[in-house]
Design brief:
The complex is a heterodimer. Chain A is mainly alpha-helical. Chain A has helices at residues 9-20, 25-35, 44-56, 75-83, 85-93, 99-151, 154-186, 191-247, 253-276, 280-302, and strands at 23-24, 60-65, 68-73. Chain A folds into three domains: 9-124, Orthogonal Bundle (Arc Repressor Mutant, subunit A), CATH 1.10.10; 152-251, no CATH class; 253-305, no CATH class. In chain A, a hairpin with a 2-residue loop joins strand 2 (60-65) and strand 3. In chain B, a hairpin with a 2-residue loop joins strand 6 and strand 7. Classes of the chains: A mainly alpha, B mainly beta.
Chain lengths: 305, 277
């Protein structure tokens, strides 16, 4: 693997420090402070990400001795230093780095470090997403019914839950019927009393299951309503704040009205589609409508006034 | 107490600076720390367009373009406006930057940094204090911020690595948020995005109650203790990791969300030298 190196002077200097001798983090910090005469005093929080980035590029390695991490340069690191000998010589000739130069080096170095960390993070996220998808595809197939219910109408979700509970209730009834038969066969009490007891218990269980399901359904529906309104508020607030940030001033009422019209439009279209059912055919018709509307708006508004 | 008009590259030194305010349209402003011996200073490297006004009054050091309100638009039309400025301040000096397209670099500060920008990138290196950034499309790239981070953008990205965050509040429309940080014990992370992608990575031993929500974005996590569910229209991953002392909440409309864990660093506990981080 050959990583791409920028012109990072700061990294070059870090490598040089480690070529002189293996060091631990604090030592590197102190040496940088000396070099930059206190104008740039990197904190542990900034040094360790940099060292670990050099490590992930194979230029540096570390070992733990007596509870401390000691960093040392690798052969690949030495090769990099050799490759950029001239730059290094220039760096060492500079007796005092100007604050401007330091700032430039810092900016470039932070940019590169943070960008490669972001890459690493996206990679890791992609891996986790793939693993999650593979593992849950089986589970998805199994629970696709309930998932579809939740996605379309909350009534449907309620219906599914209701049906599940009905089945469960029926099963419970069958189970208790079995238990009743057992009881009839095995107990000392009169057959009639035993039957009434278990019948009563089954009825209670049935009533509980029904109530629980109704509550569940009600809760689901309320939660959905809350979420939808929370989501709408969030959206509106984001728009307002984004607008305030974008213009840096109080939003122009006309502009704000336009943004409100647009966001209400989006909300309404979403609701309509959700209510009507999101099929491929509907999506195609929607796209057609949007294209038409777009060209009509364009023609009308380009006239001006 | 003084006022200077700077119309060509040069430098100024000051006695006693307790807070800094810079207003710049285009160019770069770098804020570094002047250690004990050196005096706070303003160095102007390059300047085109309106002159810079530097004022130092009651400890407040201020750098801005002349006639920011009216005349500046004339300048913008006529010629390039640009100023490259480096300011060194005491470590505990709070900094406030208002920029349009100018880039900002702030390093080693031990106080609050407040930055408003339209499109300039903001680079932060080792800030031991609260950071508050408001941007439209500028990217924020930060290494090691130990404090409360507040980030608002329309499309600007936030990338945060290293450091121990006590609070991270990020609001964006389409910006991406990528954070690879430690959370201080009872830390609170709240991220809201419309379509931006969110990726957070924290140590596996982190303790927090987690709620990841999205209407249309994919949710994924490497923490097995969390469970997936659909709450009405929102997809959701929630639960508790570790001792549940902090709060980690991400909500997006369509942006993908990923919460990852990284192996804990071996504890370095030799007293007097390195401290556990």
């Amino acid at each position: 693997m050959s990583p791409v190196f920028g012109h990072g002077r700061l990294r070059l200097y870090l490598l040089k420090l480690l070529e002189e001798s293996p060091r631990h983090g604090y030592e590197v910090i102190r040496l940088l402070q000396d070099r930059f005469m206190g104008v740039y005093s990197p904190s542990p929080g900034t040094i360790y990400p940099r060292l670990s980035r050099l490590e992930s590029e194979g230029l540096v390695t570390h070992e733990i001795a007596a509870g401390k991490k000691i960093y040392s340069i690798t052969d690949a690191g030495r090769a990099e230093l050799a490759r950029r000998e001239e730059e290094l010589a220039d760096l060492e000739d500079e007796l005092t780095a100007s604050a401007q130069q330091i700032a430039r080096d810092v900016q470039q170095d932070v940019r590169q470090t943070v960008r490669s960390l972001r890459e690493e993070l996206s990679q890791a996220a992609r891996t986790v997403r793939k693993q999650g998808r593979a593992a849950s595809s089986e589970a998805w197939r199994g629970s696709s019914e309930s998932a579809k219910g939740a996605w379309s109408d909350s009534t449907d979700a309620g219906k599914d839950a209701w049906q599940d509970a009905t089945t469960a209730g029926r099963d419970a009834w069958h189970d208790t019927a079995e238990a009743t038969r057992e009881a009839l066969r095995g107990t000392a009490r009169t057959g009639r009393e035993a039957f009434q007891d278990t019948a009563g218990t089954a009825k209670d269980a049935w009533r509980d299951a029904t109530d629980t399901t109704k509550d569940e359904f009600r809760r689901q529906r309320d939660h959905w309503r809350d979420q939808a309104s929370v989501w709408k508020d969030e959206w509106r607030r984001n728009w307002d704040e984004a607008w305030r940030t974008a213009t840096g001033a109080r939003p122009d009422p006309t502009r704000l009205h336009l943004e409100r019209l647009l966001s209400t439009f989006l909300d309404d279209v979403r609701t309509t589609v959700t209510d009507a059912g999101l099929t491929d055919a509907a999506l195609a018709r929607l796209e057609h409508h949007l294209d038409e509307t777009r060209s009509r708006l364009h023609d009308d508004l380009s006239q001006g006034g | 107490m003084g006022r200077w008009t700077v119309d060509e590259p040069g430098s100024l030194e000051f006695d006693g600076v307790v807070s800094l305010r810079v207003t710049l349209i285009a160019g770069t402003v770098s804020v570094l720390v002047a250690d004990g011996a050196a005096a706070p200073s303003v160095v102007v490297h390059e300047l085109s367009g309106p002159p810079l006004i530097v004022t130092h009054e009651a400890g407040l050091l201020s750098v801005s373009h002349e006639k920011m309100i009216e005349g500046v638009f004339g300048w913008l039309r006529q010629q390039k406006v640009r100023a490259d400025v480096t300011v060194t301040v005491p470590r505990e000096c709070p900094v406030s930057l208002t920029l349009v397209s100018a880039e900002a670099v702030v390093a080693g500060l031990g106080a609050r940094a407040s930055i408003r920008t339209a499109s300039g990138t903001v680079t932060l290196d080792g800030i031991d204090g609260d950071v508050d950034v408001n941007t439209v499309s500028g990217a924020v790239e930060a290494l090691a911020v130990d404090g409360a981070v507040s980030f608002t953008s329309v499309s600007g990205d936030l990338a945060l690595a290293g450091g121990t965050v006590q609070r991270l509040a990020a609001r964006t429309v389409s910006g991406r948020v990528a954070a690879d940080v430690d959370l201080a014990g009872p830390a609170a992370v709240d991220v809201h995005a419309v379509s931006g992608e969110i990726a957070l990575r924290v140590p596996e031993s982190t303790g927090a109650t987690v709620a990841l929500n999205s209407a249309a974005g994919s949710l994924s996590t490497s923490f097995a203790e969390l469970h997936r569910q659909n709450v009405g229209m929102m997809k959701n991953i929630s639960g508790t990791i570790g001792d549940g002392s902090g709060r980690l909440s991400v909500t997006t409309v369509s942006g993908a969300v990923a919460l990852l864990g990284r192996p804990d660093e071996p504890q370095i506990t030799v007293p007097g030298s390195e401290s556990p981080r």
